[in-house]
Design goal:
Number of strands: 21
Structural class: alpha+beta
Number of helices: 10
Oligomer: single chain
Largest sheet: 8 strands, antiparallel
Radius of gyration: 32 Å
Length: about 525
């Protein structure tokens, strides 16, 4: 069977990237630029892993869990999403290569190091983006850091994607062996297929389909990565993307990179080479909000732009080589996707379809679905006779008046709701003010000891105030002294600071133990 390499390259274009001074900053919304929030859903198209790098339990080997947030919900980190979309955006706009390394050492299978060297990538090098006046399209949008300097901050921000639909597959799974990149394979990584030539381009992994063979049994798992859980096809994660001051061309390209057209997919997470990480992103237009320029300063709701989605570029705007690596029907090609056995690793280059020794100069094409309209279709003007024209115009005017009345009613309702909300807030503020005044009067009528006891009963009391009260405990009468000591004990019990601490005794722990002894003596406890 024909062997297809798991990855391929999007070639670099000559005389690119085009750099400019068009960085608008983040201090204000500029006229004619797009800002707002995209609400997105990421759907797993097959097994997907977002690993937690921390060791799981007390295992002798390192076993990885699926990453979770503080609420114990499975997540895909926002930084991973941003990196995934940036790589697509870089290829669409032919931007600089932030991670490219044209010379160094790579690791062979048995751990030996071998040197590799390619031509310098010239204008594509990220160090050319060290000046705010010479930024490539990607660095201008996503930001860049160079030698701890910050030429510009990114104008796109991704939240973590949280699992909202479906459950993880929870079972110990041993992944097929994964290894480091092998740039010393000049026949694959080089454009001229030999050392010291130009690099092949930007690296992307093929999609293997919904059911890739990505695991091995435990008996053959000596060099494998074990995982405890993974997402399955159909699992859905939700996240938000916030954008600021995108010009029209940036906005068009970003939507295309974020939400690929039908027939394409993204890749994220661990194990891309063995078929993991295929996913697609959908922008939930009804829940997204985009505004143009400084209009949002007038009134946020009124500034919403309703035509932004129509700016999304057509699939034909994608580079041909990028179409090949992003298409979801790659598994239907005549061949097997995966690394050849190391003993028989071919020295021939790969062609445009990833076939070792093949002769294809162009990639395949997705199974294009029927296009989905980005805007509701406009009703064509009906063909009417002169006698029917008046009736038709009357009917159209009637519908327009009905629509205008509906909008006016909605506006009145919104104003009424806003008025009710403001009245409710005022009532709440008044209630809070009266409660504070009543409390202040109660405290004023108390003796100093009573006020201290009231303070100790307040859950918002600060720790340094607790220490102040303890330090003055000998100044109170015996009766109040005992009551305050009892209140201090209850406070420390509530926050787990009563009783002897195990382990190393720090200075703070020793001080607390001394305080506890004093309180016990006052309460006559052993």
């Amino acid at each position: 069977m024909t062997q297809i390499n798991p990855y391929n390259f999007v070639p670099l274009e000559p005389d690119k990237p085009v750099r400019s001074e068009g960085y608008p900053g983040r201090l204000k919304f500029h006229e004619g630029r797009y800002s707002g929030m995209f609400k997105c859903t990421l759907e797993a198209l097959g097994p997907l892993i977002s690993i937690d790098q921390r060791k799981s339990g007390k295992e002798k080997i390192k076993v990885f869990n699926f990453l979770k947030n503080y609420q114990h919900n499975p997540i895909i980190q926002g930084s991973s999403l941003k990196g995934m979309i940036r790589s697509i955006y870089e290829a669409i706009t032919d931007s600089c290569m932030t991670l490219a390394c044209t010379h160094g050492k790579s690791i062979k299978r048995r751990g030996d190091e071998i040197e590799y060297k390619y031509q310098d990538i010239g204008k594509y090098h990220n160090n050319k983006c060290s000046d705010i006046k010479t930024l490539c399209p990607s660095c201008r949008l996503f930001g860049t850091i160079n030698n701890d300097d910050r030429p510009c901050q990114g104008r796109v921000r991704f939240s973590d994607a949280v699992l909202k639909q479906g459950e993880l597959i929870k079972k110990r799974t041993y992944l097929k062996v994964l290894s480091n990149p092998k740039p010393h394979h000049h026949a694959t990584y080089g454009k001229s297929k030999h050392q010291k030539g130009p690099i092949a381009g930007r690296k992307f992994y093929y999609h293997h389909g919904k059911f890739p063979e990505f695991s091995v049994n435990e008996r053959n798992a000596r060099r494998s990565i074990p995982i405890e859980a993974y997402a399955k096809a159909g699992n859905k994660f939700e996240f938000e993307v916030y954008v600021e001051n995108l010009d029209k061309e940036e906005f068009k390209n970003f939507i295309l990179a974020l939400e690929l057209h039908k027939g394409f997919g993204h890749k994220i997470g661990l194990g891309k080479a063995i078929g993991l990480g295929s996913c697609c992103i959908t922008i939930n237009r009804d829940q997204s909000f985009i505004t143009i320029g400084s209009d949002c300063y007038k009134k946020w709701e009124a500034a919403a732009d309703t035509t932004w989605y129509s700016l999304k570029k057509d699939k034909t705007e994608l580079p041909d080589a990028l179409i090949e690596v992003l298409r979801l029907n790659k598994e239907n090609d005549d061949g097997k996707i995966g690394y050849p056995h190391f003993r028989n690793y071919p020295k021939e280059p790969i062609d445009a379809k990833g076939v070792f020794g093949g002769s294809a100069t162009e990639g395949g094409r997705p199974c294009w679905p029927d296009d989905v309209a980005t805007e509701p279709p406009k009703e064509p003007t009906p063909e009417v006779s002169q006698g029917q024209e008046a009736t038709w115009l009357k009917e159209n005017l009637k519908q327009a008046l009905i629509e205008e009345k509906r909008k006016q009613e909605e506006l009145i309702l919104q104003k009424e709701q806003e008025r009710n909300r403001q009245l409710k807030e005022k009532r709440q503020e008044e209630e809070i003010r009266k409660a504070k005044e009543q409390r202040a009067a109660e405290l004023k009528a108390m003796t100093p000891e009573q006020r201290i006891l009231a303070e100790l009963d307040d859950s918002s009391i600060l720790e340094n105030r607790i220490v102040e009260i303890y330090n003055k405990i000998d100044e109170f009468s015996e009766e109040n002294k005992r009551a305050i000591a009892l209140a201090l004990k209850k406070y420390w019990e509530r926050y787990g600071k009563w009783g002897e601490k195990k382990g190393k005794k720090t200075k703070a722990v020793l001080k607390q133990m001394k305080r506890i002894e004093t309180i016990k003596a006052i309460l006559e406890e052993s």
